[in-house]
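Task: sequence in, structure out. Protein: histidine kinase.
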Amino acid sequence: MPTSTPEIGYQDIFKSSPAAILIIDIDAPHYTILDANDAYCHATNTQRCDMIGTSVFGSFPANPTDEVSRNIEMTHYSFQQAIQTKQSHTMANYRYDIPIRGTGEFEERYWTTTNTPILDASGEVRYFIHSPANVTELYKLNQKEQAGIDALKNQRQQLYSSFMQAPLGICIISSGDLVVQMVNDSYLELVGKDRSELEHKGIWEAVPEAADAYAPILNQVINTGEPFFAKEHEVVFIRNGTPESLFLDFVYEPISHVAGENNAVMVIVIDVTDKVLARRRIEEAEERARLAIEAAEIGTFDFDPANDTVVTSERFNAIFGFDGTRTREEFRQRIHKEDLAARQAAHERAAETGKLFYEARLIWPDGSLHWIRIQADVYYNGGDKPYRMLGTVLDITEFKRLQQQKDDFISVASHELKTPMTSVKASMQLLERLIKTQPSSDKIPAFLEKANTSLTKMQHLVDALLNVSKIAAGQLALHKSDFVAADMANECCDHVRLMGTHELILTGDTRLQVYADKERIDQVVVNLVNNAVKYAPDSNKIFLHIAQTGKMAKISVQDFGRGIPPEKLPHLFERYYRVDASGVQFSGLGLGLYISAEIIERHGGQIGVNSVVGEGSTFWFTLPLSSS
Ligand code: ADP
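Result:
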């Protein structure tokens, strides 16, 4: 076993070589260090004299890393390889920390070491050159690079899994052939397709139902490189074989990979169907409520008692006679002074009961009177103090007018019935007395006739009332036949001629035949002629004119009386309506024209009036002509 320094020459080169070199004896397991150069001592922080003659495994302090045994094993193996193969053997990138002189601390070092066998003249291995290179820097750099690569891989993986699991539908389509490169589950679910139907398939072959609308847009995005954004687009997809309409927010985003060239488009889709439908339902409900409120001509208000402010609808303002919104005080000033106390009381009650209700009159600046009905619910803010009042206002002027008309009618009807009844009663009493005292008195027939006239009057009144009930119940039966209108007009008004107060002049087409219920039409003409007599007492002519207009016969009754003010004309044919509501001057129930209008309308005809105050009125109606 050689123990002395080998005679290898090149001593100077060995010593000053920049590569760290140990010369080691091949005898296992000791592997004695025969020599070490300066570069070695420097690299490993050791003293040459300390090492020479010691075992390579013993000359270094305990390596603090837990890789000691692995390193020893690896070095053994490397030595043996070098001996056996007679070739250099390299141990790459292993850790072996070296002591920091005088501190007891170690410095982390990585090495790549070559064990090169040196052969003698007979070709036998005699020594090793053990040459470790400090690769710490390189190793760390590699590690860093690896860490970077790993992080990138990791990121990519994370990105991919968030892509796959994203609640948004994502699909990446290559720009050239429009083939789907990647697609996530949400997208598949959205378009109602399996992965196999979409992935690596042409997008429009996979989802043909959307091609018409969106292929041009996709092409445009590819051509221009500009993204396309869509909000709440309605798209129909065939899902499970049935077309389903979806509302989608989506974007076509070009992705450029190479030098700004777009070679894919990322489609990101959010299904907003539920949101859109929910919003539509709310909008529809609001619209329905608004239409109902509008149709009912209801004004609405939202009153804030704490600040004494009110928000009102257009209809509310209009009912109060304003063309825009006003302060609460301005609205209040329109209320009739006599109704302010009732309003105040209603508000005080509402604060307790939670319900506001009152009716009041408004006086507009033009002096016109309007009735309103206010209704509201009070809302309390936790305590008992009202903080909000939401309510409605209705214009009930017409309702009040009709109510008034009905009240008037009842008093008029009672009065109308009472007069002939009193007359009949008086005649009967006188007759009773006469029959007892002077049974053959010549006054008896006159009293009988008077009683009879009064009874006829009563009968007419009762007939009119019965007609109204029949009309209301839809039971006014018609028995139609063909007859000559002029004949009927002539016959029905003999009583007027007999009275002698008015001259009845029949003009026009006296041969015109109509198809109607003769008795009912008779009733209409009598009513119009009687009205002419009644409301034109000072003029002595009444014209009855018959003419053909198209397929109808038009029959007019013209008087030269007082006429009717234009604002009253629209109401003339209403039930109980009388121009002079007090009924002081003329008796009547306000039913004649209403019944006439019903009869004519049931015949498919029209009824109307032309009237000029001070000149007279022409009431007219039309009837179907006889077809024969
Ligand atoms: P009535 O005569 O019983 O009051 P009508 O229905 O026949 O009821 O008439 C309604 C109202 O129309 C009358 O109260 C009257 O004021 C007005 N009127 C009807 N005919 C005439 C007329 N020829 N001239 C003026 N006013 C009329």
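The mean pLDDT is 88.
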